């Protein structure tokens, strides 16, 4: 084992809960139906594909940009300045990986400026050797591009790297890249497909640390 690559939203930060909550506020204001189901369909994908999913579900005349801006403004009002909650065990896991000299990276579908800002405000930016974001690759998860790029930047083979993910598309992406996916569920419950694709499904990042310590030989 040479490296661990983390998704960000729902893995490092408890941000997806806040996104769902803010979309519900906007949906109730404008009478948008089934917003939670739509948000769940968008887990793990980039902004371009998310936009397409909203248009597919609500029609091409859906004022997505207006509603998305309102949601984003609400989100940042509640998350800026380090207020975004971290997932339990993330700092301990990062400290452990540092002590073990295991490389780390972020592979997030979110755009780079926001990823960097949230990690910095959360006091976690210095833990990561590389950051790869949705606006840095041509294809979104579930395609393998973002994880392949992370491994390339880390200068490690995908088969020597683990990926920590919470979404179906993230697990699919890491598996297609040839990595070892570990699912830590957040908004999406594990399915039979996820059980087949993931090396392990664990309830929290605390168990991820225990799993790595017990099962992964440090090369």
Automatic annotation (TrEMBL):
This is HAD family phosphatase. The lineage of its organism: Bacteria, Bacillati, Bacillota, Clostridia, Lachnospirales. InterPro entries: HAD-like_sf, HAD-SF_hydro_IA, HAD_2, HAD_sf, PGP-like_dom2. It comes from the Bacteria. SUPFAM superfamilies: HAD-like. It holds the Pfam family HAD_2. It comes from Blautia intestinihominis.
């Amino acid at each position: 084992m040479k490296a661990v690559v983390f998704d960000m939203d729902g893995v490092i930060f408890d941000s997806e809960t806040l996104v769902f909550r803010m979309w519900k506020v906007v949906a109730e204001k404008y009478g948008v139906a089934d917003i939670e189901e739509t948000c769940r369909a968008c887990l793990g994908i980039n902004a371009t594909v998310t936009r397409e999913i909203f248009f597919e579900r609500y029609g091409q005349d859906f004022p997505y940009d207006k509603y998305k801006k309102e949601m984003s403004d609400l989100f940042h009002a509640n998350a800026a300045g380090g207020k975004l909650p971290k997932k339990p065990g993330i700092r301990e896991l990062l400290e452990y990986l540092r002590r073990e000299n295991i490389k780390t990276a972020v592979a997030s579908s979110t755009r780079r400026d926001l990823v960097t800002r949230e990690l910095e405000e959360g006091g976690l930016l210095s833990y990561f050797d590389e950051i790869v974001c949705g606006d840095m690759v041509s294809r979104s998860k579930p395609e393998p591009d973002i994880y392949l790029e992370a491994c390339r930047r880390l200068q490690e083979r995908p088969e020597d790297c683990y990926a920590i993910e919470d979404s179906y598309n993230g697990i699919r992406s890491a598996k297609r890249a040839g990595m070892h996916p570990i699912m830590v569920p957040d908004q999406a419950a594990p399915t039979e497909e996820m059980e087949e694709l993931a090396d392990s499904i664990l309830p929290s990042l605390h168990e991820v640390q225990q799993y790595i310590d017990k099962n992964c030989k440090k090369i």
